[in-house]
């Protein structure tokens, strides 16, 4: 049996996009708790709270002193504060983290059905030694390399000198079990290290299994897995509408996309109409690509 899921909608800006996202999340997941975690300017929270109230079961704002840079680097600590102050009160086994610029087009309990109890989903999970020299947060010579070395030294001090393999992921989404957060939220020196290698390390230490999911292919360094389109990435450029449409029209195609920072239809009729328009655009572009070269070649043949 799959764990009981809850969705954590993590947001901080773009109220129009946020409204579209939570409306769509609620339509696709009518029986799951959808819980808000706001990380933006605290003065703006009442406006967001009113706007999102019809679709969220709860909405909590982080009121700590961290600036935008701190919140970006230490998003795991915001989740920890939320869990200790509010999140553990709700009934769930595994928390699915959905940021505001994540587009989900299938029920979450279907997309994450393969997860076992106490198992983490971490996008793009891979052995750190495969990418350590390329990954910004561990790359020698970067301004953050010292943090990585300090984190490794701390692990050795606290958990013995026996080495174990480190892993890396891309934390634009995740599935975090309650059993993991119960321990992770109480760690000493919580800000040491970066969450994309720190979370896998502690999952390993706590004995929580962790995995990537084949139905959610994640691009590393802008390159998707072989045979896959770029649908989940940390790149700044939005996933193109043509890619979203192509995946949705493909049986077994991707149903989750990141980043998508623009509004998207949230009703069945709206999505169907959007897909129809995109399919028309794709067909028209394909026809132009086939017909225009023919016209050009005929035109050249008539030239003196």
What's the CATH architecture name?
Alpha-Beta Complex
Which regions have little confidence, pLDDT < 50, spanning 5+ residues?
Answer: 295-304
Query: What is the succession of H and E elements?
Result: EHEHEHHEEHEEHEEHHEHEH
Number of helices, counting only DSSP H or I runs of 4 residues or more: 10
How many strands? 11
Fraction of residues in H or I helices: 25-40%
User: Would you tell me the overall average pLDDT?
Assistant: 92
**Over the alpha carbons, how many angstroms does the gyration radius reach?**
22 Å
Structural class by secondary-structure content: alpha/beta
How far apart the termini lie comes to 75 Å
Bin the strand percentage: 5-15%
Note the main sheet: 5 strands, mixed
CATH class (first level) name? Alpha Beta
Strand order of the largest sheet: 3-2-1-4-9
Give the CA-based shape.
globular
Give a short synopsis of this structure.
The protein is an alpha/beta fold. The chain contains ten helices and eleven strands. It has a single domain (5-280), classed as Alpha-Beta Complex (Spore Coat Polysaccharide Biosynthesis Protein SpsA, Chain A).
Descriptive account of the structure:
- It is a single chain.
- By secondary structure, this protein is of the alpha/beta class.
- The chain has one domain: Spore Coat Polysaccharide Biosynthesis Protein SpsA, Chain A, CATH 3.90.550.
- The protein is 39% helix and 13% strand.
- It contains 10 helices and 11 strands.
- The strands form 4 sheets. A 5-stranded mixed β-sheet has the order 3-2-1-4-9, with helices on both faces. Strands 5-11 form a two-stranded antiparallel ribbon. The chain has a two-stranded parallel ribbon with strand order 6-10.
- Helix 1 links the parallel strand 1 and strand 2.
- Helix 9 packs across helix 10.
- It is globular, with a radius of gyration of 22 Å.
- The N and C termini lie far apart (75 Å).
């Amino acid at each position: 049996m799959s764990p009981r899921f809850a969705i954590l909608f993590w947001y901080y800006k773009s109220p129009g996009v946020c409204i579209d996202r939570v409306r769509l999340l609620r339509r696709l997941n009518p029986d799951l708790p959808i819980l808000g975690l706001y990380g933006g300017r605290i003065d703006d929270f009442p406006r967001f709270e009113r706007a999102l109230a019809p679709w969220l079961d709860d909405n909590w704002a982080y009121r700590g002193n961290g600036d935008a840079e701190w919140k970006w680097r230490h998003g795991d600590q915001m989740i920890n504060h939320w869990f200790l102050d509010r999140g553990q009160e709700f009934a769930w086994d595994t928390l699915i983290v959905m940021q505001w610029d994540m587009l989900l087009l299938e029920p979450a309990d279907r997309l994450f059905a393969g997860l076992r109890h106490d198992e983490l989903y971490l996008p793009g999970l891979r052995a750190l030694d495969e990418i350590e020299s390329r990954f910004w947060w561990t790359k020698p010579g970067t301004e953050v390399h010292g943090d990585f070395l300090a984190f490794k030294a701390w692990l050795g001090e606290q958990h013995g000198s026996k080495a174990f393999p480190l892993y890396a992921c891309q934390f634009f989404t995740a599935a975090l079990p309650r059993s993991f957060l119960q321990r992770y939220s109480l760690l000493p020196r919580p800000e040491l290290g970066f969450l994309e290698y720190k979370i896998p390390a502690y999952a390993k230490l706590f004995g929580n299994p962790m995995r990537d999911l084949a139905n959610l292919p994640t691009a590393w360094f802008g390159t998707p897995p072989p045979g896959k389109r770029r649908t989940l990435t940390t790149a700044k450029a939005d996933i193109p509408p043509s890619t979203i449409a192509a995946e949705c029209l493909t049986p077994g195609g991707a149903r989750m996309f990141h980043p998508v920072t623009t509004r998207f239809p949230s009703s069945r009729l709206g999505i169907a109409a959007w897909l129809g328009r995109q399919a028309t655009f794709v067909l028209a572009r394909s026809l132009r690509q086939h017909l225009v070269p023919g016209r050009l070649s005929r035109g050249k043949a008539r030239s003196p």
